[in-house]
Design a protein that fits this description.
It is built from eight helices and 14 strands. It is of the alpha/beta class and 375 residues long. The protein has one domain: Purple Acid Phosphatase, chain A, domain 2, CATH 3.60.21.70. α2 packs parallel to α4 and α3 packs parallel to α6. The longest helix has 34 residues. It is globular, with a radius of gyration of 25 Å. 40% of the residues are buried. The protein binds fe (ii) ion. Fe (ii) ion binds next to loops. One of its GO terms (molecular function) is alkaline phosphatase activity. This is Alkaline phosphatase D family protein. Keywords: Hydrolase.
């Protein structure tokens, strides 16, 4: 009897010891897995090297668009439409669809589509309404029209989630150029109206529409897009072109811009720092002229924002912008980024080319200037 008890106890002990060891093994395995760099899904991958990127915004669908023809003649690898790609301004979805059709029927648009990969995001007028945000009542219908016109395949992730934000990776010969296309309409809270707050009237000689939020309880991008963006910035890339319909790098000017949501503008800068994302620069549209802004950051690389907004549109004056380092260019134009990958430290040419084929802005930066490992 006693022997049987001893045997049973020994068996129980062995069993417990085995369980303990295997649990430890599991724990070790989990720790190991967690320490591995997460690999996120790249939404669109094109196995090509990108050296020439053209872009623009604000084209009226019922006017000739010679700027698109000039851009096509450059044979860019990619052309990015940065919003106001048509002036929809309607709550009738047949009208919206027809206006896209009129853009699609243009020879210059067809030529450009044949000579370059086309990427697109929207701004207010092609989303549907001037300065519209998340309360625009036809945002779901407008999104399907957008995805249809810009030829998103049936299995495109954008069909399954809210909004039209997405990313595309061009990868070849060991070089990756990542395009991050933001959606600044679907989730944007109402803007805060300007209500006569005191300003420097010598600087702001025109009517101001909006005033920046002073608390962090409003959003431009929305929670889901913020989480997605963090993921995107964590994926390795040599150069990242953040495509933003509104200007990112400018100072407050009373019109639509990231500056109306200073807490989210700062959040993006903090996210670049947190993810140690290399090679981030912005391209933007919206304002009907061109300029280059440089947002300097202490102990961090500067953020360039090259604005091109004049496929057909024009504006009478450029608003004050403390970060402007080139421009403003008031004639119709397109933006051009050329990357010379040959030097050990690749060179990026940031250009604005006008309707007369004249290069009006040309700023040259080295890739290392916007990389953490070279700071
Ligand atoms: Fe516009």
């Amino acid at each position: 009897m006693k022997k049987q008890w001893i045997g049973l106890l020994a068996c129980l002990y062995a069993c417990l010891a085995w369980q303990c060891t295997s649990k430890k093994k599991e724990e070790t395995q989990t720790t190991k897995e967690e320490s591995v760099t997460p690999s996120y899904t790249k939404e669109h991958v094109v196995p090509e090297k990108v050296s020439k990127i053209a872009f623009g915004s604000c084209g009226y669908q019922d006017e000739p668009q010679p700027i698109l023809q000039l851009a096509a003649e450059q044979n860019p690898d990619v052309f990015v439409f940065l919003g106001d790609n048509i002036y929809g301004d309607t709550k009738n979805m047949d009208t919206l669809r027809n206006k896209y059709k009129r853009l699609g029927a243009k020879e210059e648009f067809k030529n450009l589509s044949q000579s370059a990969h086309i990427l697109a995001t929207w701004d207010d007028h092609d989303y549907g309404w001037n300065d519209a945000g998340r309360h625009y009542p036809f945002k779901k219908e407008s999104k399907e029209i957008f995805l249809d016109f810009w030829k998103a395949p049936a299995d495109d992730i954008r069909h399954q989630r809210e909004g039209i934000y997405t990313s595309t990776y061009f990868e070849a010969e060991g070089k990756t150029v990542q395009f991050i296309l933001l959606d600044l309409r679907t989730f944007r809270d109402d803007l805060r109206k300007y209500e006569g707050q005191e300003v420097d009237t010598t600087k702001f000689h025109y009517g101001l529409d909006y005033w920046p939020y002073e608390t962090a309880d409003s959003t431009l991008m929305g929670t889901g897009q913020w989480l997605w963006l963090e993921e995107q910035l964590s994926i390795p890339a040599d150069l990242r072109i953040v495509c933003s319909s509104s200007q990112f790098g400018i100072t407050y000017n009373g019109y639509e811009a990231w500056a109306n949501f200073p807490h989210e503008q700062q959040k993006l800068l903090d996210l670049i720092q947190k993810t140690q994302a290399n090679g981030v620069m912005f391209i933007s549209g919206d304002v009907h002229y061109a300029e280059l802004s440089k947002l300097e950051r202490e102990d961090n690389y500067p953020i360039y924002d090259l604005t091109s907004s004049g496929i057909t549109s024009k504006w009478d004056f450029a608003t004050p912008n403390d970060n402007r380092i080139a421009g403003a260019i008031m004639e119709n134009h397109y933006g051009l980024i050329e990357i010379d990958w040959n030097p050990e430290d690749p060179v990026i040419h940031l250009k604005i080319v006008d309707i007369n084929k004249e290069v009006r802005i040309h700023e040259q930066i080295k890739l290392s200037e916007i990389h953490y490992d070279k700071l």
